[in-house]
Design goal:
The chain is of the alpha+beta class and 229 residues long. 59% of the residues lie in helices and 7% in strands.
């Protein structure tokens, strides 16, 4: 009996892209169901009633939500081309860096690009500190996973595309080649890997989408500041 694998996602979600890449690396055939937020399909709400977000992987009728959880499920279900290392300590550290990416790097980078002036300069401090940790972790390695793309690379993969889009929109360089040579090189190598490159969303559409998001965030912040005076 053939396996049924479905992926609910949006065209632009960097979290869903993690799952796309993992399935491609594993060579797993799957059906894509593109959601059009904010109009969420009844199927998405059925499979993910708790947070009602993408991505959701449905394997033989059973749903799995949250991108990092899905990555681990994929790695445990299909053994070919492992994403996580065999060593328990190395596996634990991979999970640590993936969580660090979501909890620290992503949130601090987002803060930089939705602020202006003095507030933006202040937000740069923790963001740059977090990027320095990633730079240090890449010493002696091509990828976070070693010589091949692994779990942490997929978890941090949004950096290789979204950072340059946000830099272009705001006109601010965050990942400079001189300051972060290893991270800069990783972003280039990861982005140009065939499986990764072939699945990036259209850059022009991403610029339009995130320009609107940044404008809305800045406007909301300005309105909040005005109302508090």
């Amino acid at each position: 009996m053939a396996e049924e694998v479905k992926l609910f996602r949006t065209w632009s979600s960097p979290f869903a892209l993690r799952v796309v890449w993992a399935l491609k690396i594993k060579g797993i055939e799957y059906e894509t169901i593109l959601e059009n937020f904010p109009n969420k399909s009844p199927s998405l709400l059925q499979y993910n009633p708790v947070n009602k977000q993408v991505p959701v992987l449905v394997h033989n009728g059973k749903p799995i939500a949250e991108s990092l959880v899905i990555l681990e499920y994929i790695d445990e279900t299909w053994n070919q081309s492992p994403l996580l290392p065999d060593d328990p300590n190395e596996r634990a550290m991979a999970r640590f860096w993936a969580k660090f990416g979501d909890d620290k790097v992503l949130t601090s980078i987002r803060s930089v690009f939705i602020k202006q002036g003095k507030e933006q300069q202040e937000a740069l401090v923790p963001a740059m500190e977090n990027l320095k940790f990633l730079e240090e972790e890449l010493k002696g390695k091509k990828y976070f996973g070693g010589e091949k793309i692994g779990f942490v690379d997929l978890a941090l993969g949004w950096l290789a595309n979204l950072i340059s889009i946000l830099e272009e929109i705001v006109g601010l360089k965050v990942v400079d080649e001189e300051e972060f040579p290893l991270l800069y090189g990783w972003m280039r190598d990861f982005a140009e890997a065939e499986i990764i490159r072939d699945n990036w969303p259209p850059r022009d559409k991403m610029i339009v989408k995130f320009q609107a998001r940044i404008d809305a965030a800045i406007a909301a912040s300005a309105a909040s500041s005005s109302s508090s005076k």
